[in-house]
Amino acid sequence: MADFLRLSAGTWLSVRSVHHFDFSPDQSGESNLIITLLEQDDEVVERVCAQQGIPASAATIGARFQWQGNHKKGPADERYGAVLVDLPGEHPGHGRLVRDVGYVEATPVISAYRFNTDGLLTIDTIYDRNTGTERCWFINEDVRVRVGTVQLMDGPNLISYATETRCTPLEELEELRRAAQQRC
User: Fold this and answer.
1) How far is it, in rounded angstroms, from Cα 31 to Cα 73?
2) Domain residue spans in the chain?
């Protein structure tokens, strides 16, 4: 999981399609997904672990996930994000993720995860009234895919699909522009 999160760090253009099985408003669209790594001794990692009564020493790494409109300037709004912390399991490629805010229900939650041999990550979360499954994998280091389902007690509620493309920082683009101009 630590390697997966390190590869995920950065800003991504997320293009998402959501199909609801009821009459909920459409959530399809584009946004920026900003992923920032947090070290084991970060106070935020310690706070998230403490919410669940887990010692921070059991964690290996954390990450802050923030969503922001892709045309919005300035820092991301803290209300549109979550922090997750990796708690590796006894078996390689298995573990738990502690989140300060769940994706489906806005409460602290612990999810189980596992990696397939091909690198596909599956995260299963059981909430009070719902269950969620998300699968995520890399096409290459600059393109990720996520597929998710949310199921209520009486059947599926929504299915989502997102393609996420890494955004190159402006400093790197400027450096590439200068290098290209020097070659001309």
Assistant:
1) 12
2) 2-183
- Residue spans of beta strands (DSSP E) within 29-68: 29-39, 61-68
In terms of average pLDDT, the best of 1-15, 91-105, 142-156 is 1-15
**What single-letter amino acid sits at 59?**
A
What DSSP character marks residue 129? S
Task: Say yes or no: domain 2-183 is CATH 2.170.150.20.
Answer: no
SS (H, E, C) 115-137: ECCCCCEEEEEECCCEEEEEEEE
- The CB density around residue 64, as the number of other CB atoms within 10 Å, is 19
pLDDT band at 75 (very low <50, low <70, confident <90, very high): low
Q: What is the pLDDT of residue 158?
A: 86
In one letter, which amino acid is 32? N
